[in-house]
C-alpha cells in the first residue's frame, strides 16, 4: 500500500452556511460536486480537489453531534495489501463505498482514537465493497 497524498479534512458543523461563507471569502475555496450521501453537507474545492468536506449536524451536542474535525483522509493505492496490513496488525476497520462514485474507503482509528480514512480508486484491488 502506498499513500499518495492528504486528500481532505472532514468537519462537522451546525453552521454550514457560516463555514461555507468563511472558506469561500477568506480562503477562496469554491463549492463543488458532492456524492449523494444520505446526510447533508457541502464540499469545498481548492482548485480541482475537494479539500474540505462539511457535514451538517443539527446542533452541537444534539444526538451526540459534536462539531469540529471529524476525520482526515488520505488517497492511496494497494487496497488489498492495506487490508492485509490492518488484519496483521489487528487494527479494526470498516470498508465503505462512496455512492455513485465507487471510491472505496477504509475507516480506522489511531491509538488515540482519531478517525482516519484511507480512500482507494474503484478499480484498485478486488476487496469486496462493504
Write the layout of secondary structure elements.
Blueprint: E1 2-13, H1 16-25, E2 30-32, E3 41-46, E4 49-56, E5 68-77, H2 79-88, E6 93-97, E7 104-109, E8 115-120
Parallel strand pairs: 1-4, 5-8
Antiparallel strand pairs: 1-5, 2-3, 3-4, 6-7, 7-8
Distance between the termini: 19 Å
Q: Within the CATH hierarchy, at the fold level, what is the topology? A: 2,3-Dihydroxybiphenyl 1,2-Dioxygenase, domain 1
Q: Indicate the low-confidence ranges by residue numbers.
A: none
Number of helices: 2
What percentage of residues falls in helices of 4 or more residues? 10-25%
Question: Strand order across the biggest sheet?
Answer: 2-3-4-1-5-8-7-6
Describe the overall structure.
This protein has one domain: 2,3-Dihydroxybiphenyl 1,2-Dioxygenase, domain 1 (Roll). Helices cover 15% and strands 43% of the residues. The chain has helices spanning 16-25, 79-88, and strands at residues 2-13, 30-32, 41-46, 49-56, 68-77, 93-97, 104-109, 115-120. Strands 2-3-4-1-5-8-7-6 form an eight-stranded mixed beta sheet, covered by helices on one side. It starts with a strand and ends in a 10-residue tail after the last strand.
Compact summary:
This protein has about 130 residues and is an alpha+beta fold. It has one domain: 2,3-Dihydroxybiphenyl 1,2-Dioxygenase, domain 1 (Roll). It contains 2 helices and 8 strands.
Features:
eight-stranded mixed beta sheet; 2 helices; alpha+beta; 2,3-Dihydroxybiphenyl 1,2-Dioxygenase, domain 1; 8 strands
